[in-house]
Design a protein that fits this description.
mainly alpha; about 90% helix; rod-shaped
Length: about 140
Amino acid sequence: MNFFTLVSLALPLTKENSQLHPSSARAELCDEHTARESRPPSPSRSTITERVVISSVLSRLGDLEKQLETLRMRKFEMPHEKEELLNAAVYRVDALEAELITTKKALHEALMRQDELLSYIDRQEEAKYRRKKFCW
């Protein structure tokens, strides 16, 4: 239908152009006349093939319009099974994220404790070195 509408809209435009420019319309008629004389004498075959092509295009276009209407009528809902799988995956991601946050906090605390222990060991070694120095 859309294709037919497009073709029917294009035809009046060409007629209007020929009415606006009568000299060009005459030239087109002369060109068309000479083209008809130089063509082979089988215009009925081309007309038949054009009709066949147009009818097949229109039938395909009708089929596409039916398929489009079928797609428009469908609901845009996710199947229940897929929704459950998605919810389970989201829940698992949330649980992993919580575990990761807990692990990150524990790691940070361990690093802080390690820094404290290293500074304690450094102080002990400095104190030990001072005692040896004074003892000499």
